[in-house]
Every structure is written in structure tokens, then in C-alpha cells.
Design brief:
The chain is mainly beta. It has one domain: Tachylectin-2, Chain A (5 Propeller). 10% of the residues lie in helices and 34% in strands. It contains four helices and 19 strands. The strands form five sheets. The protein has a four-stranded antiparallel β-sheet with strand order 1-2-3-4, with no helix packed on it. Strands 5-6-7-8 form a four-stranded antiparallel β-sheet, with no helix packed on it. Strand 3 and strand 4 form a beta hairpin. Bound molecules: beta-L-arabinofuranose. The site of beta-L-arabinofuranose has 12 residues, from strand 1 and strand 13.
Length: 333
């Protein structure tokens, strides 16, 4: 890892001397990436939502079962790190089917944000509800403050012709919080200050080309970046595409691909800045494929992360996926 950091530092110093550019428009070699994918070996996980709280990077994924053959996930863990190499599993932080009266199945991709010292976990269930759970700590315990979903597929204004899933919550610099959500049609609501209610309006986002699912919002230098899985109904495997706008509600302009398709079929990611670098978190089937070669099990997914680079004009360079079997081989032998 130190060796790799040294290589990156050398590239940047060379750029500072005017010899080349740190912001080359060609894809950057992933020189500063430690050989660490998949990130976790003891557990299958997918759909990572990464956030920084104080000095620590927290990842809230969904939890694929070891014997999974269907998307029948039922609980949430959270993982934390301060170096992207050593991860702490804080255990199960929320079980929707036991801790709510209304959620019955399919605890899929969650997100979690902090506001005024409280942590709000947003999670989809039953392919039709979005719930919110609250805690005083990033690692729980979380509880259901409402006794009902925050938003559902049949809430006034929601447009959804398939699964109503994949909430992502973004708090803008002015303090306004937005929840992006949906499949096939991207919806957005403005959350109230309490983070467990909203103003009653559902906004349909324009310009989100080939939107499928896995929506994620982040902001950099006043640009709002909306990224998402763009398949699978457009003649290609799902990729992570992105569009930009100068307002959280758009209209958006399509910009390109952040991540090509992955070997797990579904594609789901998050983008976060940590210790000065930008990272893309996503999932693959690497761990499952190493354990059972040739058996493509798209519901035993494993977490991955790679560096993400911007061009000088603010566009995103396509991320190069890194795969490394060293850790897995060490574990298996
Ligand atoms: O993990 C279950 C579902 O698969 C997620 O909600 C989707 O984004 C896809 O990754």
C-alpha cells in the first residue's frame, strides 16, 4: 500500500513540475489502490452506501446470505475503516422484519446519513416500501420511529412500474435533505428537518438517461452528480452511468459511464471522498467465484472499492475495476 501511494505521489509531483498532468483525460492507472478487492472475506454484502463520519469511513451495505439463491436478504450490518484495508464489522444493526410491524421481506439496498448527531437508516422492503430507522450512533442500535413506512409505491405522486427500492439520501450545503429512490423512474422527495417526514411532494427527475436502479447523489464544486445502474433493458448489462445538474432536482444532463458492468449482474455503487481522495464503492461476485469457480451466483456478492478520478472540466473518468485474489487465496489455503 505504501509503495502504491509513493507511485501516486510521484505522478502528482511530476505534474506539479509541469511535466504532465494529474488530471489526464485518459483513464488513470489505479496506482494508489491497495490490492484489497474484495474488501470483506467473512461475509457476503452488496449495494454499499459509503459515508464519512468524523475520521472514519462507514459502509452500509445490504447483506447477501452465504447460502443465498434468491434476493431474500433480511438484516443490515455496518462496516467501518480508517485505512480502507482493515474493516470492522459492527454486527447486525437492524432487522426490519423483527423490528417493525409492517416489513415482511426483501431488505434490499439501504443508505444512512447523520444529522444533528442522529443517524437515519433508510431501507427498502417488500419491493414497495421505504422505511427509516433512527439511532444515536452510526453502528446502532436502530429503531423504527414511525410504525409505518416513510414512503410507499402507492404514496401520492410516486411513479413506479416495477420495484420501489434503493433509497439514497443527500443533504445539501443549505441543509435541505433529499431522498432519491425508485426503479425505472427516478423519484425524489424533500425530507423535512426531522428526517422522518417529507413535504408531501414527489419530484420526477428529468434527463436521467436509461435509469434502472441504484441511484446515488453526490456534490462536488457546485455540480450535482446523479449516478445509477443503467441496465438491463437497453441491450447491455447494467453499468453505472451518471448525469449532472446545477440543482439537486435537475434537470439532468447525461455525461457517461462511471463503471462498466460487473460479474454479479446487478450493479450498485456509492461515491465518497475520504482523506482527500474520491472512491467508488460497488459490488462484484469475486469472492463467490473464487470459492465456487464456475458457479455464477449473483446473490452472493462481495464489496469492492476503487479510486475515482475527475477531469479538469468536472466529468468523471471511467473507473478501472481491480480484482485481487491474494487475500482470498490466503484465506482458503
Ligand atoms: O441487492 C438487492 C437489489 O439488487 C438492490 O436493491 C438493487 O440495487 C440490486 O443491487
Amino acid at each position: 500500500m505504501h509503495h502504491n501511494h509513493t507511485i501516486q505521489l510521484t505522478l502528482c509531483l511530476t505534474a506539479a513540475m509541469g511535466l504532465t498532468s494529474c488530471h489526464n483525460t485518459a483513464p488513470q492507472p489505479q496506482t494508489s489502490v491497495p490490492s484489497h478487492n474484495p474488501l470483506l472475506l467473512h461475509s457476503y454484502a452488496a449495494d454499499p452506501s459509503a459515508h464519512v463520519y468524523h475520521d472514519t469511513l462507514w459502509v452500509y451495505p445490504s447483506h447477501d446470505k452465504t447460502d443465498a439463491c434468491r434476493f431474500d436478504m433480511e438484516d443490515y450490518h455496518v462496516y467501518s475503516t480508517t485505512d480502507l484495508e482493515h474493516w470492522h464489522d459492527h454486527g447486525i444493526i437492524f432487522r426490519p422484519f423483527e423490528q417493525t410491524t409492517w416489513a415482511k421481506e426483501a431488505a434490499w439496498a439501504p443508505d444512512c446519513v447523520e444529522r444533528n448527531g442522529k443517524f437515519y437508516l433508510y431501507y427498502p422492503t417488500d419491493k414497495r416500501h421505504i422505511g427509516v430507522a433512527v439511532s444515536d450512533r452510526p453502528d446502532g442500535p436502530f429503531h423504527d420511529p414511525l410504525g409505518h413506512p416513510l414512503l410507499s409505491i402507492d404514496s401520492p405522486g410516486v411513479v413506479c412500474d416495477r420495484d420501489f427500492i434503493d433509497p439514497c439520501v443527500f443533504i445539501d450545503d443549505d441543509g435541505q435533505a433529499y431522498m432519491y429512490v425508485g426503479q425505472n423512474t427516478p423519484c425524489c422527495i424533500r425530507l423535512n428537518e426531522d428526517m422522518i417526514s417529507y413535504d408531501g411532494q414527489v419530484h420526477l427527475l428529468e434527463g436521467v438517461t436509461e435509469f434502472f436502479e441504484a441511484i446515488w447523489m453526490h456534490k462536488r464544486d457546485s455540480i450535482y452528480y446523479l449516478s445509477y445502474s443503467d441496465g438491463p433493458f437497453h441491450g447491455h448489462q447494467p453499468r453505472i452511468s451518471y448525469c449532472t445538474a446545477d440543482h439537486p432536482l435537475g434537470p439532468f444532463t447525461y455525461r457517461g459511464i462511471v463503471l462498466d458492468s460487473v460479474n454479479s449482474g446487478t450493479n450498485h455503487h456509492s461515491i465518497v471522498q475520504y482523506q482527500g481522495d474520491w472512491w467508488l464503492f460497488y459490488h462484484t461476485s469475486d469472492l463467490s467465484l473464487y470459492r465456487t469457480p464456475g458457479e455464477h451466483n449473483g446473490v452472493r456478492r462481495s464489496l469492492a472499492a476503487d479510486r475515482l478520478y475527475y477531469n479538469p472540466d468536472g466529468t468523471i473518468q471511467q473507473v478501472v475495476q481491480t480484482h485481487d485474489s491474494t487475500k482470498i487465496k490466503q484465506e482458503l489455503h
